[in-house]
Amino acid sequence: ALVRISLKGKSLDAESRPPCTLVFLIDVSGSMDEPTKRPLGKKYIKIWARQFAAQDRVSLVVYAGAAGLVLPPTPASDLATIDAAVENLQAGGSTAGGAGIQLAYDLALRNLLPAGNNRVVLATDGDFNVGMSDPEELARFIANRAQQGVFLTVLGFGMGNYKDDRLETLSNKGNGNYAYIASFSEARKVLAEQAAGTLFAIAKDVKLQVEFDPDVVKSW
User: Is 193 left (phi over 0), alpha (psi -120 to 50) or beta?
Assistant: First the structure.
């Protein structure tokens, strides 16, 4: 027999949601230079930016051979500046993922909104091979920053059906979530169906206790 247990979180409308500090951390290493990776990620970010409110702030940090700030905190209403920064992203080099994550979180903490939604959005193909490469060290770092109020969303681009357990673990440690995007149709689906869940934490440390009726269920 099969059992399915489903949950539905509360909905957030645009008028009542808190302001956002969003730091996009974008992998621009050589492995991202494929149509289903960096170009798709750029298109996704530009479309996603149009769902933000004027009160929200958007930043861009990149990492490859080195990490760097591409766009300082910018009002989401300034789409021309955001679009130009995204369009200028170029691929090349190895993947200094750890240094990029440190820079992105430092930026988010410096611009922390105590009553707002503070989040790092990591866009990558999962190729972490330089920098803070120890998975346990990286997980501890992200969990510590989540306790300080900065959560993590992970977007895996161009990975097809391959689910990277490391990326899922990082998003879980960061009180966040993840999605895998291999085509523009998948990108639109994530934007349309999962935008609120990708941006906002509506519950923390959720636990379920399920009890079966022994008169109905023979074993479990």
Answer: alpha
